[in-house]
Design a protein that fits this description.
It is a single chain. This protein is mainly alpha-helical and 299 residues long. The protein has ten helices and no strands.
Length: 299
């Protein structure tokens, strides 16, 4: 029963992707997201004035609007979705683990905004324009470049695994996870050992590549609240934006895992091990190509 459900879910998600990128759906979503961001920013300005005046409920309202801003921000074109979605297709990672990575990367992005603003204010005496220029002109291309490198790394790792899979298949289906009957030694790490090594490296690479570029909306909020003497509200608001962003990247994470498992469910058991490296190669090349295009567009 699980295989037909995964296949249907994968087909539905594939149809959504085709509509988004083949029939102009992405442009419509982007326009809707920009309109939502503009309306949310205006409402946030009103709530900040209410918060400074001490009106009850203003802080809770501000947090809700910050969450909404993060959601609208993530709904438009973004580097985090490319990386999380591509990694979900590339690696045999569970939906729960990928969701944790999506949440961690969004919160790390919020933390980067806080660090940039307060380091800029107290250590480097930067103006708001300087910090915005730093985020857009330097940190944004750096983030896209880092994501492109992660994509190339995934593609290279997929090529290596594809070569090992072919070698293992040609070696009389020898189990490289178990000790060899003739020499008593293992010819390779176990699956658990390999995942333990690559797991933390993948997590660090994904989180770091996303966090390099802080959200511009979070920067504006933090600078404004600092000037108004509402520092704590600004910091809490930045992390609320991070949670709003995470609500979208979590959906992308679950969708990518569903697509991958739906595609794998249509394969015979023996073909799955040979297909996974090809998924990793294709996803890595796609991540690298899209991120390079985005990097060149902001230079």
């Amino acid at each position: 029963m699980r295989r037909p459900v995964l296949s249907l879910a994968a087909l539905a998600l594939a149809a959504l992707v085709i509509w988004l990128w083949g029939f102009g759906g992405a442009g419509q979503v982007s326009a809707w997201a920009r309109a939502g961001q503009a309306e949310t920013q205006q409402a946030m300005a009103r709530l900040l004035r209410a918060l400074r005046a001490g009106e009850p409920g203003a802080l809770a309202g501000l947090m809700g609007l910050c969450f909404a801003y993060g959601f609208f921000h993530a709904a438009g074109p973004g580097h985090g979705k490319i990386l999380i979605g591509g990694y979900g297709m590339a690696a045999r990672v569970s939906a729960f683990r990928l969701s944790l990575l999506a949440l961690a990367s969004s919160l790390a992005q919020a933390a980067a905004a806080v660090l940039l603003v307060y380091a800029g204010v107290f250590l480097f005496d930067l103006t708001r324009q300087h910090m915005t220029d730093l985020a857009e002109d330097i940190m944004a291309p750096a983030s896209f470049a880092a994501i492109a490198l992660v994509g190339l790394w995934l593609a290279f790792r997929g090529l290596r695994r594809w070569g090992k899979t072919r070698a293992t298949h040609d070696h009389h289906h020898h189990d490289h996870d178990a000790p060899c009957a003739s020499c008593g030694h293992k010819h390779g790490p176990t699956l658990a050992e390999a995942e333990a090594v690559t797991g933390w490296r993948d997590a660090a690479a994904l989180i770091g590549a996303v966090a390099i570029r802080p959200c511009t909306g979070a920067l504006f909020l933090l600078i404004l609240t600092w000037r108004m003497g509402l520092d704590l509200a600004g910091i809490l608001g930045a992390f609320a934006m991070g949670l709003g962003t995470a609500s979208v990247t979590l959906a992308v994470a679950i969708a990518s895992v569903t697509l991958r498992e739906g595609a794998l469910a249509r394969l015979a058991t023996g073909d799955t091990a040979r297909a996974l490296p090809l998924f990793e190669i294709a996803a890595g090349v796609t991540i690298a190509a899209l991120s390079t295009h985005l990097m060149l567009s902001v230079l």
